[in-house]
Amino acid sequence: MLVMITVESLTKTYGRAMTAVDDVSFTAATGRVTGFLGPNGAGKSTTMRIMVGLTPPTSGTVTMDGHRFADLPNPGAEVGVLLDASAQHAGRTGREILTLAQRTMGLPRTRVQEMLDLVSLTSAEADRRVRDYSLGMRQRLGIGTALLGDPRILILDEPANGLDPAGIRWMRDLLRGFADQGGTVLLSSHLLHEIEVIADDLVVIGHGRIVAQGTKADLLAAAGTLARTRDAAALARAMEQAGLTATVHADGSVRTDASPDQVGEAALAARVVLTELRAAEGAGLEEMFLELTADTQREGAAA
Amino acid sequence: MTTTTLTPSTPTAGPPRSTSGTVAPRPRSTQTRIPLTRLVGVELRKMFDTRAGFWLMASLVITNLLATAAIIVFAPDDQLTFDNFAAAIGAPMTVILPMIGILAVTSEWTQRSGLTTFTLVPHRGRVLGAKFLAATGVGVVSMFVALAVGAVGTLVGSAVAGVDPVWNVSVAHFALIVLGSVLGMLFGFMLGLVIRNSAGAIVTYFVYTLVLPPLLGLLAANQKWFADLQPWVDYSYAQRPLFDGTLNSQQWQQLGVSGALWFLLPMAVGLLVVRRTEVK
To answer: What CA–CA distance (Å, rounded) separates B44 from B137?
Structure first.
Protein backbone atom coordinates (compact mmCIF):
# COMPACT_ATOMS: atom_id res chain seq x y z
CA MET A 1 0.00 0.00 0.00
CA LEU A 2 1.64 3.18 -1.15
CA VAL A 3 1.00 6.23 0.97
CA MET A 4 0.23 9.29 -1.16
CA ILE A 5 -1.02 11.89 1.28
CA THR A 6 0.60 12.25 4.68
CA VAL A 7 -0.85 14.57 7.28
CA GLU A 8 1.34 14.92 10.35
CA SER A 9 0.43 16.51 13.68
CA LEU A 10 -1.66 19.20 12.06
CA THR A 11 -2.93 21.83 14.47
CA LYS A 12 -4.83 25.02 13.78
CA THR A 13 -5.82 27.37 16.55
CA TYR A 14 -7.72 30.64 16.30
CA GLY A 15 -6.63 32.89 19.11
CA ARG A 16 -6.19 31.05 22.39
CA ALA A 17 -9.65 29.66 22.92
CA MET A 18 -10.52 27.97 19.65
CA THR A 19 -8.73 24.88 18.38
CA ALA A 20 -10.26 23.90 15.05
CA VAL A 21 -7.81 21.11 14.28
CA ASP A 22 -5.98 19.38 17.11
CA ASP A 23 -2.91 17.25 16.38
CA VAL A 24 -4.42 15.49 13.38
CA SER A 25 -2.37 12.78 11.67
CA PHE A 26 -3.50 10.37 8.99
CA THR A 27 -2.54 9.00 5.59
CA ALA A 28 -4.33 8.24 2.35
CA ALA A 29 -3.05 5.46 0.09
CA THR A 30 -2.89 4.85 -3.63
CA GLY A 31 -5.70 2.82 -5.12
CA ARG A 32 -7.97 3.50 -2.18
CA VAL A 33 -10.77 5.85 -1.30
CA THR A 34 -10.19 7.37 2.10
CA GLY A 35 -13.31 8.72 3.76
CA PHE A 36 -12.90 11.69 6.09
CA LEU A 37 -15.89 11.48 8.35
CA GLY A 38 -17.13 13.81 11.03
CA PRO A 39 -20.09 15.85 12.16
CA ASN A 40 -20.44 19.45 10.99
CA GLY A 41 -17.83 21.73 12.49
CA ALA A 42 -15.50 18.84 13.34
CA GLY A 43 -12.56 20.35 11.44
CA LYS A 44 -12.81 18.45 8.13
CA SER A 45 -12.93 21.52 5.91
CA THR A 46 -10.24 23.35 7.87
CA THR A 47 -7.96 20.31 7.55
CA MET A 48 -8.58 20.14 3.80
CA ARG A 49 -7.99 23.88 3.36
CA ILE A 50 -4.67 23.53 5.18
CA MET A 51 -3.76 20.58 2.93
CA VAL A 52 -3.94 22.77 -0.18
CA GLY A 53 -2.43 25.88 1.37
CA LEU A 54 -5.53 28.05 1.65
CA THR A 55 -5.24 28.18 5.43
CA PRO A 56 -1.84 28.36 7.13
CA PRO A 57 -1.53 25.74 9.90
CA THR A 58 -0.43 26.68 13.39
CA SER A 59 1.84 23.62 13.32
CA GLY A 60 2.23 20.34 11.50
CA THR A 61 2.91 19.34 7.91
CA VAL A 62 1.11 17.89 4.91
CA THR A 63 2.87 16.20 2.02
CA MET A 64 1.53 14.80 -1.24
CA ASP A 65 3.79 12.10 -2.62
CA GLY A 66 6.56 13.58 -0.52
CA HIS A 67 6.10 17.17 -1.64
CA ARG A 68 4.50 20.13 0.05
CA PHE A 69 1.46 21.25 -1.93
CA ALA A 70 2.95 24.71 -2.51
CA ASP A 71 6.11 23.12 -3.98
CA LEU A 72 4.20 21.33 -6.74
CA PRO A 73 5.09 23.13 -10.00
CA ASN A 74 1.58 22.80 -11.45
CA PRO A 75 -0.64 21.64 -8.56
CA GLY A 76 -3.81 21.27 -10.62
CA ALA A 77 -2.17 18.63 -12.80
CA GLU A 78 -1.28 16.51 -9.77
CA VAL A 79 -3.96 17.17 -7.19
CA GLY A 80 -7.60 17.76 -8.11
CA VAL A 81 -9.34 19.83 -5.46
CA LEU A 82 -12.99 20.61 -4.79
CA LEU A 83 -13.57 22.40 -1.52
CA ASP A 84 -16.74 24.40 -2.09
CA ALA A 85 -18.70 24.10 -5.30
CA SER A 86 -20.43 27.42 -4.67
CA ALA A 87 -17.18 29.35 -4.43
CA GLN A 88 -17.17 30.54 -8.04
CA HIS A 89 -17.75 33.91 -9.65
CA ALA A 90 -21.54 33.89 -10.11
CA GLY A 91 -21.23 35.89 -13.34
CA ARG A 92 -19.06 33.39 -15.18
CA THR A 93 -20.40 30.55 -17.27
CA GLY A 94 -19.53 26.99 -16.37
CA ARG A 95 -17.51 26.67 -19.57
CA GLU A 96 -15.57 29.86 -18.74
CA ILE A 97 -14.67 28.58 -15.27
CA LEU A 98 -13.27 25.39 -16.80
CA THR A 99 -11.48 27.43 -19.47
CA LEU A 100 -9.75 29.61 -16.85
CA ALA A 101 -8.52 26.48 -15.06
CA GLN A 102 -7.49 24.88 -18.36
CA ARG A 103 -5.45 27.97 -19.29
CA THR A 104 -3.87 28.25 -15.85
CA MET A 105 -2.71 24.64 -16.04
CA GLY A 106 -1.63 25.00 -19.67
CA LEU A 107 -3.81 22.15 -20.97
CA PRO A 108 -5.16 21.67 -24.51
CA ARG A 109 -8.46 23.46 -25.11
CA THR A 110 -10.24 20.20 -25.90
CA ARG A 111 -10.01 19.20 -22.22
CA VAL A 112 -12.83 21.64 -21.38
CA GLN A 113 -15.38 19.87 -23.59
CA GLU A 114 -14.12 16.48 -22.44
CA MET A 115 -14.79 17.43 -18.83
CA LEU A 116 -18.23 18.86 -19.64
CA ASP A 117 -19.08 15.53 -21.27
CA LEU A 118 -17.66 13.59 -18.35
CA VAL A 119 -19.75 15.43 -15.75
CA SER A 120 -22.81 15.45 -18.04
CA LEU A 121 -23.26 19.19 -18.37
CA THR A 122 -24.93 19.94 -21.70
CA SER A 123 -23.67 22.72 -23.97
CA ALA A 124 -26.67 24.86 -23.06
CA GLU A 125 -25.96 24.37 -19.35
CA ALA A 126 -22.25 25.04 -19.81
CA ASP A 127 -23.04 28.41 -21.39
CA ARG A 128 -25.29 29.50 -18.54
CA ARG A 129 -23.93 31.61 -15.72
CA VAL A 130 -23.12 29.82 -12.50
CA ARG A 131 -25.57 31.96 -10.51
CA ASP A 132 -28.33 30.08 -12.36
CA TYR A 133 -26.88 26.66 -11.51
CA SER A 134 -28.42 24.29 -8.99
CA LEU A 135 -26.12 23.00 -6.26
CA GLY A 136 -25.97 19.67 -8.07
CA MET A 137 -24.77 21.35 -11.27
CA ARG A 138 -22.17 23.30 -9.31
CA GLN A 139 -20.90 20.07 -7.78
CA ARG A 140 -20.62 18.51 -11.23
CA LEU A 141 -18.74 21.56 -12.49
CA GLY A 142 -16.49 21.44 -9.43
CA ILE A 143 -15.72 17.77 -9.96
CA GLY A 144 -15.00 18.57 -13.62
CA THR A 145 -12.57 21.30 -12.53
CA ALA A 146 -10.88 18.91 -10.12
CA LEU A 147 -10.44 16.24 -12.81
CA LEU A 148 -9.43 18.69 -15.55
CA GLY A 149 -5.68 18.39 -15.07
CA ASP A 150 -5.81 14.55 -15.00
CA PRO A 151 -4.47 14.46 -11.43
CA ARG A 152 -3.36 11.42 -9.43
CA ILE A 153 -4.85 12.68 -6.19
CA LEU A 154 -8.36 13.94 -5.53
CA ILE A 155 -9.31 15.97 -2.47
CA LEU A 156 -13.05 16.54 -2.30
CA ASP A 157 -15.00 18.23 0.50
CA GLU A 158 -18.58 16.97 0.70
CA PRO A 159 -18.78 16.26 -3.05
CA ALA A 160 -22.13 14.47 -2.76
CA ASN A 161 -23.89 17.57 -1.41
CA GLY A 162 -26.75 18.59 -3.65
CA LEU A 163 -26.44 15.66 -6.03
CA ASP A 164 -29.56 13.62 -6.73
CA PRO A 165 -29.49 9.85 -6.08
CA ALA A 166 -28.45 9.15 -9.68
CA GLY A 167 -25.72 11.78 -9.34
CA ILE A 168 -24.45 10.26 -6.12
CA ARG A 169 -24.31 6.86 -7.80
CA TRP A 170 -22.47 8.39 -10.75
CA MET A 171 -19.93 10.06 -8.48
CA ARG A 172 -19.41 6.90 -6.48
CA ASP A 173 -18.62 4.93 -9.65
CA LEU A 174 -16.37 7.72 -10.88
CA LEU A 175 -14.31 7.83 -7.68
CA ARG A 176 -14.18 4.03 -7.51
CA GLY A 177 -12.84 3.92 -11.06
CA PHE A 178 -10.36 6.70 -10.29
CA ALA A 179 -8.98 4.77 -7.32
CA ASP A 180 -8.92 1.46 -9.20
CA GLN A 181 -6.73 3.09 -11.86
CA GLY A 182 -4.13 3.93 -9.27
CA GLY A 183 -5.47 7.24 -8.05
CA THR A 184 -5.76 8.40 -4.46
CA VAL A 185 -9.06 9.81 -3.22
CA LEU A 186 -9.69 11.70 0.00
CA LEU A 187 -13.27 12.74 0.42
CA SER A 188 -15.09 14.17 3.39
CA SER A 189 -18.66 13.78 4.43
CA HIS A 190 -20.88 14.16 7.44
CA LEU A 191 -23.20 11.55 5.90
CA LEU A 192 -22.29 8.11 7.15
CA HIS A 193 -24.12 6.19 4.53
CA GLU A 194 -22.35 7.96 1.70
CA ILE A 195 -18.90 7.26 3.14
CA GLU A 196 -19.80 3.73 4.10
CA VAL A 197 -20.63 2.73 0.55
CA ILE A 198 -17.63 4.25 -1.12
CA ALA A 199 -14.66 4.37 1.24
CA ASP A 200 -12.02 1.69 1.73
CA ASP A 201 -10.38 3.46 4.64
CA LEU A 202 -11.92 5.73 7.20
CA VAL A 203 -10.66 8.63 9.25
CA VAL A 204 -13.21 9.78 11.80
CA ILE A 205 -12.83 13.25 13.29
CA GLY A 206 -14.76 14.94 16.08
CA HIS A 207 -14.09 18.39 17.50
CA GLY A 208 -10.79 18.68 15.72
CA ARG A 209 -9.40 15.36 16.93
CA ILE A 210 -9.08 12.05 15.16
CA VAL A 211 -11.29 9.62 17.07
CA ALA A 212 -10.84 6.53 14.92
CA GLN A 213 -9.08 5.43 11.77
CA GLY A 214 -8.47 2.24 9.89
CA THR A 215 -9.86 0.17 7.06
CA LYS A 216 -13.61 0.11 6.76
CA ALA A 217 -13.55 -3.67 7.18
CA ASP A 218 -11.75 -3.39 10.53
CA LEU A 219 -13.97 -0.65 11.83
CA LEU A 220 -17.11 -2.51 10.76
CA ALA A 221 -15.95 -5.81 12.25
CA ALA A 222 -16.26 -4.27 15.67
CA ALA A 223 -19.90 -3.56 15.09
CA GLY A 224 -21.30 -6.98 16.09
CA THR A 225 -24.86 -8.22 15.87
CA LEU A 226 -28.32 -6.75 15.97
CA ALA A 227 -31.30 -8.83 17.12
CA ARG A 228 -34.99 -8.08 17.64
CA THR A 229 -37.50 -9.92 19.68
CA ARG A 230 -40.90 -9.33 21.27
CA ASP A 231 -39.24 -9.41 24.70
CA ALA A 232 -35.97 -7.58 24.58
CA ALA A 233 -35.32 -7.87 28.31
CA ALA A 234 -35.68 -11.66 28.18
CA LEU A 235 -33.25 -11.88 25.28
CA ALA A 236 -30.74 -9.67 27.06
CA ARG A 237 -30.99 -11.90 30.15
CA ALA A 238 -30.55 -15.02 28.05
CA MET A 239 -27.50 -13.56 26.35
CA GLU A 240 -25.91 -12.51 29.63
CA GLN A 241 -26.47 -16.03 30.97
CA ALA A 242 -24.64 -17.30 27.90
CA GLY A 243 -21.76 -14.97 28.73
CA LEU A 244 -22.44 -12.41 26.02
CA THR A 245 -22.69 -8.67 26.43
CA ALA A 246 -26.03 -7.20 25.47
CA THR A 247 -27.37 -3.69 25.16
CA VAL A 248 -31.06 -2.97 24.76
CA HIS A 249 -31.60 0.11 22.61
CA ALA A 250 -34.51 2.50 22.71
CA ASP A 251 -35.82 1.20 19.38
CA GLY A 252 -36.28 -2.27 20.95
CA SER A 253 -33.24 -3.83 19.29
CA VAL A 254 -30.60 -5.73 21.20
CA ARG A 255 -26.99 -5.23 20.16
CA THR A 256 -23.85 -7.10 21.07
CA ASP A 257 -20.24 -7.68 20.06
CA ALA A 258 -21.00 -11.40 19.69
CA SER A 259 -21.66 -13.10 16.37
CA PRO A 260 -25.21 -13.75 15.09
CA ASP A 261 -24.45 -17.44 15.62
CA GLN A 262 -23.88 -17.04 19.35
CA VAL A 263 -26.95 -14.84 19.75
CA GLY A 264 -29.11 -17.42 17.94
CA GLU A 265 -27.84 -20.20 20.21
CA ALA A 266 -28.55 -18.19 23.33
CA ALA A 267 -32.04 -17.32 22.14
CA LEU A 268 -32.79 -20.96 21.31
CA ALA A 269 -31.59 -22.13 24.72
CA ALA A 270 -33.83 -19.62 26.49
CA ARG A 271 -36.73 -20.29 24.07
CA VAL A 272 -36.95 -16.60 23.09
CA VAL A 273 -38.52 -15.94 19.71
CA LEU A 274 -36.35 -13.78 17.45
CA THR A 275 -37.98 -11.57 14.86
CA GLU A 276 -34.71 -10.31 13.39
CA LEU A 277 -31.12 -11.44 13.60
CA ARG A 278 -28.30 -10.01 11.52
CA ALA A 279 -24.79 -8.64 11.54
CA ALA A 280 -25.13 -4.97 12.54
CA GLU A 281 -23.16 -3.87 9.50
CA GLY A 282 -25.47 -1.21 8.14
CA ALA A 283 -26.12 0.39 11.48
CA GLY A 284 -22.70 -0.46 12.81
CA LEU A 285 -20.75 2.47 11.53
CA GLU A 286 -23.49 4.86 12.49
CA GLU A 287 -23.40 3.44 15.98
CA MET A 288 -19.66 3.85 16.11
CA PHE A 289 -19.82 7.31 14.63
CA LEU A 290 -22.38 8.51 17.16
CA GLU A 291 -20.54 6.85 20.01
CA LEU A 292 -17.16 8.20 19.00
CA THR A 293 -18.38 11.73 18.55
CA ALA A 294 -20.80 11.74 21.49
CA ASP A 295 -18.08 12.33 24.08
CA THR A 296 -16.52 15.21 22.27
CA GLN A 297 -19.93 16.65 21.52
CA ARG A 298 -20.88 16.55 25.20
CA GLU A 299 -17.61 18.23 26.06
CA GLY A 300 -18.40 20.88 23.53
CA ALA A 301 -21.88 21.44 24.90
CA ALA A 302 -20.61 21.73 28.47
CA ALA A 303 -17.90 24.22 27.58
CA MET B 1 -46.24 -21.76 -0.79
CA THR B 2 -43.37 -20.87 -3.05
CA THR B 3 -39.85 -20.09 -2.10
CA THR B 4 -38.12 -17.18 -3.70
CA THR B 5 -34.37 -17.24 -3.82
CA LEU B 6 -32.85 -13.82 -3.96
CA THR B 7 -29.49 -13.39 -5.53
CA PRO B 8 -27.16 -11.75 -3.07
CA SER B 9 -26.33 -8.20 -3.89
CA THR B 10 -23.74 -5.89 -2.51
CA PRO B 11 -24.49 -2.28 -1.72
CA THR B 12 -21.92 -1.12 -4.22
CA ALA B 13 -22.49 -1.92 -7.82
CA GLY B 14 -20.04 -1.15 -10.57
CA PRO B 15 -16.43 -2.21 -10.91
CA PRO B 16 -15.03 -4.69 -8.40
CA ARG B 17 -13.37 -3.34 -5.34
CA SER B 18 -9.65 -3.14 -5.16
CA THR B 19 -7.82 -4.75 -2.34
CA SER B 20 -4.96 -3.02 -0.66
CA GLY B 21 -1.71 -2.88 -2.51
CA THR B 22 -2.87 -4.46 -5.74
CA VAL B 23 -3.11 -1.22 -7.67
CA ALA B 24 0.02 0.26 -9.09
CA PRO B 25 0.22 4.02 -8.57
CA ARG B 26 -0.08 6.12 -11.67
CA PRO B 27 3.23 7.48 -12.87
CA ARG B 28 3.94 11.07 -12.06
CA SER B 29 3.78 13.33 -15.08
CA THR B 30 6.57 15.83 -15.40
CA GLN B 31 5.34 19.31 -14.79
CA THR B 32 6.94 22.65 -15.28
CA ARG B 33 6.27 25.70 -13.16
CA ILE B 34 3.40 27.85 -14.43
CA PRO B 35 5.00 30.82 -16.23
CA LEU B 36 4.04 34.35 -15.19
CA THR B 37 2.99 35.25 -18.75
CA ARG B 38 0.30 32.57 -18.60
CA LEU B 39 -0.97 33.90 -15.28
CA VAL B 40 -1.12 37.45 -16.67
CA GLY B 41 -3.11 36.11 -19.62
CA VAL B 42 -5.57 34.36 -17.32
CA GLU B 43 -5.96 37.43 -15.12
CA LEU B 44 -6.59 39.60 -18.19
CA ARG B 45 -9.27 37.18 -19.32
CA LYS B 46 -10.92 37.33 -15.91
CA MET B 47 -11.31 41.11 -16.27
CA PHE B 48 -13.49 40.66 -19.34
CA ASP B 49 -15.30 37.36 -18.93
CA THR B 50 -18.24 38.42 -16.76
CA ARG B 51 -21.08 40.70 -17.79
CA ALA B 52 -20.03 43.23 -15.14
CA GLY B 53 -16.40 43.09 -16.21
CA PHE B 54 -17.25 43.37 -19.89
CA TRP B 55 -19.47 46.42 -19.42
CA LEU B 56 -16.94 48.07 -17.14
CA MET B 57 -14.42 47.77 -19.96
CA ALA B 58 -16.99 48.80 -22.55
CA SER B 59 -17.92 51.82 -20.43
CA LEU B 60 -14.35 53.09 -20.84
CA VAL B 61 -14.87 53.36 -24.59
CA ILE B 62 -18.48 54.50 -24.31
CA THR B 63 -17.66 57.37 -21.92
CA ASN B 64 -14.79 58.34 -24.22
CA LEU B 65 -17.21 58.68 -27.11
CA LEU B 66 -19.87 60.48 -25.05
CA ALA B 67 -17.34 62.97 -23.65
CA THR B 68 -16.01 63.64 -27.16
CA ALA B 69 -19.50 64.14 -28.57
CA ALA B 70 -20.39 66.47 -25.69
CA ILE B 71 -17.37 68.69 -26.39
CA ILE B 72 -18.18 68.86 -30.10
CA VAL B 73 -21.80 69.79 -29.41
CA PHE B 74 -21.45 72.15 -26.44
CA ALA B 75 -17.99 73.71 -26.51
CA PRO B 76 -17.45 77.06 -28.30
CA ASP B 77 -15.38 76.79 -31.51
CA ASP B 78 -12.18 78.17 -30.00
CA GLN B 79 -12.34 75.55 -27.26
CA LEU B 80 -12.22 72.60 -29.69
CA THR B 81 -8.62 71.93 -28.75
CA PHE B 82 -6.97 68.60 -28.14
CA ASP B 83 -6.31 69.33 -24.48
CA ASN B 84 -9.98 70.00 -23.85
CA PHE B 85 -10.88 66.69 -25.47
CA ALA B 86 -8.21 65.00 -23.40
CA ALA B 87 -9.55 66.57 -20.19
CA ALA B 88 -13.16 65.62 -20.96
CA ILE B 89 -12.17 62.03 -21.75
CA GLY B 90 -9.83 61.79 -18.79
CA ALA B 91 -12.49 62.64 -16.19
CA PRO B 92 -14.54 59.43 -16.50
CA MET B 93 -11.31 57.43 -16.94
CA THR B 94 -10.06 58.51 -13.53
CA VAL B 95 -13.24 57.03 -12.01
CA ILE B 96 -13.56 53.82 -14.04
CA LEU B 97 -9.91 52.72 -14.06
CA PRO B 98 -9.64 52.54 -10.25
CA MET B 99 -12.87 50.50 -10.19
CA ILE B 100 -11.23 48.02 -12.56
CA GLY B 101 -8.17 47.94 -10.32
CA ILE B 102 -10.30 47.32 -7.22
CA LEU B 103 -12.46 44.58 -8.72
CA ALA B 104 -9.48 42.74 -10.22
CA VAL B 105 -8.42 41.93 -6.66
CA THR B 106 -11.59 41.93 -4.57
CA SER B 107 -13.67 39.62 -6.77
CA GLU B 108 -11.47 36.69 -5.72
CA TRP B 109 -12.67 37.26 -2.16
CA THR B 110 -16.14 38.70 -2.61
CA GLN B 111 -17.07 36.10 -5.26
CA ARG B 112 -14.92 33.47 -3.49
CA SER B 113 -13.31 32.38 -6.77
CA GLY B 114 -9.99 32.71 -4.89
CA LEU B 115 -10.58 29.22 -3.54
CA THR B 116 -9.89 27.85 -7.03
CA THR B 117 -7.37 30.51 -8.08
CA PHE B 118 -5.11 30.12 -5.05
CA THR B 119 -5.38 26.31 -5.15
CA LEU B 120 -4.28 26.14 -8.79
CA VAL B 121 -1.49 28.61 -8.00
CA PRO B 122 -0.59 28.29 -4.31
CA HIS B 123 1.61 31.41 -4.45
CA ARG B 124 -0.52 34.44 -3.74
CA GLY B 125 2.27 36.87 -4.50
CA ARG B 126 2.53 35.52 -8.06
CA VAL B 127 -1.22 35.70 -8.62
CA LEU B 128 -1.35 39.26 -7.31
CA GLY B 129 1.71 40.19 -9.35
CA ALA B 130 -0.05 38.87 -12.47
CA LYS B 131 -3.14 40.89 -11.56
CA PHE B 132 -0.98 43.99 -11.06
CA LEU B 133 0.59 43.60 -14.50
CA ALA B 134 -2.76 42.87 -16.15
CA ALA B 135 -4.38 45.92 -14.52
CA THR B 136 -1.46 48.18 -15.48
CA GLY B 137 -1.66 46.90 -19.04
CA VAL B 138 -5.37 47.63 -19.24
CA GLY B 139 -4.76 51.11 -17.81
CA VAL B 140 -2.05 52.01 -20.35
CA VAL B 141 -3.93 50.55 -23.34
CA SER B 142 -7.16 52.31 -22.39
CA MET B 143 -5.27 55.61 -22.24
CA PHE B 144 -4.10 55.07 -25.81
CA VAL B 145 -7.67 54.31 -26.84
CA ALA B 146 -8.66 57.60 -25.19
CA LEU B 147 -5.85 59.34 -27.09
CA ALA B 148 -7.15 57.97 -30.37
CA VAL B 149 -10.74 58.95 -29.59
CA GLY B 150 -9.59 62.43 -28.54
CA ALA B 151 -7.61 62.84 -31.76
CA VAL B 152 -10.60 61.84 -33.87
CA GLY B 153 -12.77 64.20 -31.80
CA THR B 154 -10.37 67.08 -32.41
CA LEU B 155 -10.37 66.42 -36.15
CA VAL B 156 -14.14 66.00 -36.41
CA GLY B 157 -14.89 68.87 -34.05
CA SER B 158 -12.68 71.35 -35.85
CA ALA B 159 -13.99 70.17 -39.22
CA VAL B 160 -17.58 70.67 -38.06
CA ALA B 161 -16.75 74.12 -36.69
CA GLY B 162 -14.61 74.97 -39.74
CA VAL B 163 -11.50 75.82 -37.72
CA ASP B 164 -7.99 74.41 -37.80
CA PRO B 165 -7.41 71.52 -35.35
CA VAL B 166 -5.32 72.58 -32.35
CA TRP B 167 -2.80 69.91 -31.25
CA ASN B 168 -1.75 71.36 -27.92
CA VAL B 169 -0.85 68.19 -26.01
CA SER B 170 2.78 67.14 -26.24
CA VAL B 171 4.04 63.57 -26.03
CA ALA B 172 5.55 64.35 -22.65
CA HIS B 173 2.25 65.78 -21.40
CA PHE B 174 0.39 62.69 -22.61
CA ALA B 175 2.91 60.43 -20.88
CA LEU B 176 2.28 62.28 -17.60
CA ILE B 177 -1.48 61.92 -18.04
CA VAL B 178 -1.04 58.19 -18.61
CA LEU B 179 1.12 57.99 -15.50
CA GLY B 180 -1.48 59.89 -13.45
CA SER B 181 -4.32 57.67 -14.64
CA VAL B 182 -2.40 54.46 -14.03
CA LEU B 183 -1.38 55.67 -10.55
CA GLY B 184 -5.06 56.26 -9.81
CA MET B 185 -5.87 52.77 -11.03
CA LEU B 186 -3.13 51.21 -8.93
CA PHE B 187 -4.38 53.12 -5.91
CA GLY B 188 -7.66 51.27 -6.44
CA PHE B 189 -5.70 48.02 -6.78
CA MET B 190 -4.00 48.73 -3.46
CA LEU B 191 -7.34 49.43 -1.75
CA GLY B 192 -8.68 46.15 -3.14
CA LEU B 193 -5.67 44.32 -1.74
CA VAL B 194 -5.93 45.91 1.70
CA ILE B 195 -9.73 45.72 2.06
CA ARG B 196 -10.48 42.58 -0.04
CA ASN B 197 -14.16 43.45 -0.30
CA SER B 198 -15.65 45.10 -3.39
CA ALA B 199 -18.18 47.37 -1.70
CA GLY B 200 -15.80 48.37 1.09
CA ALA B 201 -12.97 49.18 -1.29
CA ILE B 202 -15.18 51.22 -3.64
CA VAL B 203 -16.67 53.25 -0.78
CA THR B 204 -13.19 53.86 0.60
CA TYR B 205 -12.03 55.00 -2.82
CA PHE B 206 -14.79 57.59 -3.06
CA VAL B 207 -14.18 58.80 0.48
CA TYR B 208 -10.54 59.21 -0.50
CA THR B 209 -11.23 61.07 -3.75
CA LEU B 210 -14.38 63.07 -2.87
CA VAL B 211 -14.42 63.62 0.89
CA LEU B 212 -10.79 63.82 1.88
CA PRO B 213 -9.48 66.51 -0.55
CA PRO B 214 -11.90 69.30 0.54
CA LEU B 215 -11.22 68.52 4.20
CA LEU B 216 -7.46 68.67 3.65
CA GLY B 217 -7.96 71.83 1.59
CA LEU B 218 -9.88 73.41 4.46
CA LEU B 219 -7.16 72.44 6.89
CA ALA B 220 -4.48 73.89 4.62
CA ALA B 221 -6.44 77.13 4.24
CA ASN B 222 -6.64 77.62 7.99
CA GLN B 223 -3.42 76.14 9.28
CA LYS B 224 -0.20 77.56 7.94
CA TRP B 225 1.89 74.56 9.04
CA PHE B 226 -0.31 72.17 7.05
CA ALA B 227 -0.33 74.34 3.94
CA ASP B 228 3.44 73.85 3.72
CA LEU B 229 3.18 70.16 4.52
CA GLN B 230 0.24 69.26 2.26
CA PRO B 231 2.13 68.66 -1.03
CA TRP B 232 4.35 66.17 0.79
CA VAL B 233 1.63 64.16 2.52
CA ASP B 234 -1.44 64.56 0.28
CA TYR B 235 -1.14 61.98 -2.51
CA SER B 236 -3.99 63.24 -4.68
CA TYR B 237 -2.75 66.84 -4.29
CA ALA B 238 0.72 65.71 -5.40
CA GLN B 239 -0.77 63.94 -8.45
CA ARG B 240 -2.56 67.02 -9.79
CA PRO B 241 0.48 68.47 -11.65
CA LEU B 242 0.66 65.24 -13.68
CA PHE B 243 -2.54 66.17 -15.46
CA ASP B 244 -1.31 69.75 -16.05
CA GLY B 245 1.66 68.39 -17.93
CA THR B 246 4.68 69.68 -16.06
CA LEU B 247 6.40 68.74 -12.84
CA ASN B 248 9.48 70.40 -11.39
CA SER B 249 11.91 68.29 -9.42
CA GLN B 250 10.37 69.27 -6.11
CA GLN B 251 6.95 68.14 -7.34
CA TRP B 252 8.41 64.79 -8.38
CA GLN B 253 9.84 64.43 -4.89
CA GLN B 254 6.49 65.33 -3.36
CA LEU B 255 4.81 62.71 -5.55
CA GLY B 256 7.35 60.16 -4.39
CA VAL B 257 7.04 60.96 -0.69
CA SER B 258 3.24 61.10 -0.60
CA GLY B 259 3.06 58.02 -2.83
CA ALA B 260 5.28 56.06 -0.46
CA LEU B 261 2.97 57.07 2.38
CA TRP B 262 -0.40 56.47 0.70
CA PHE B 263 0.43 53.77 -1.81
CA LEU B 264 3.65 51.81 -1.23
CA LEU B 265 3.32 51.43 2.52
CA PRO B 266 -0.30 50.17 2.57
CA MET B 267 0.47 48.00 -0.47
CA ALA B 268 3.35 46.33 1.39
CA VAL B 269 1.19 45.79 4.46
CA GLY B 270 -1.63 44.42 2.30
CA LEU B 271 0.74 41.98 0.55
CA LEU B 272 2.09 40.72 3.88
CA VAL B 273 -1.43 40.22 5.25
CA VAL B 274 -2.76 38.55 2.10
CA ARG B 275 0.05 36.02 2.06
CA ARG B 276 -0.81 34.85 5.57
CA THR B 277 -4.56 35.23 5.59
CA GLU B 278 -7.06 32.42 5.18
CA VAL B 279 -8.95 32.05 1.91
CA LYS B 280 -12.45 30.81 2.66
So the answer is: 9
- Give B26-74 pLDDT, tens digit per residue: 777 677 899 999 999 999 999 999 988 999 999 988 998 999 888 888 8
Where in chain A is CATH 3.40.50.300? 3-213
The CA R_g of chain A, rounded to the nearest whole Å, is: 23
Spell out the CATH class of A221-302: alpha beta
Interface of A with B in 55-84 (CB under 8 A): 55-56, 65, 69-70, 72-78, 81, 83-84
Three-state DSSP class for A202? strand
Distance CA B209, CA B191 (A): 12
Q: CA-CA distance, A101 to A117, in Å (whole number)?
A: 16
Q: How far is CA B53 from CA A36, B46, B48, B174, B206, in A?
A: 39, 8, 5, 27, 20
Q: What is the mean pLDDT of chain B?
A: 87
Looking at CA atoms only, how far is residue A237 from chain B in angstroms? 33
Which tens digits make up the pLDDT trace of B104-153? 999 999 999 999 999 999 999 999 999 999 999 999 999 999 889 888 98
ipTM value for the complex: 0.85
Total Cβ atoms within 10 A of residue B6? 5
Q: Flag whether pLDDT at A270 surpasses 60.
A: yes
Is the predicted pLDDT of residue B18 greater than 50, yes or no? no
Q: Does domain A3-213 have CATH number 3.40.50.300?
A: yes
Contact B12/A at CB under 8 A: yes
Minimal Cβ distance to B122: which of A53, A169, A182:
A53
In this prediction, residues A20-29 reach a mean pLDDT of 95
Give the best residue of A18, A71, A89 to mutate against chain B (max B CB count within 10 A).
A89
Does the distance separating the beta carbons of A49 and B278 come in below 8 Å? Answer: yes
**What residues does CATH 3.30.70 cover in chain A?**
221-302
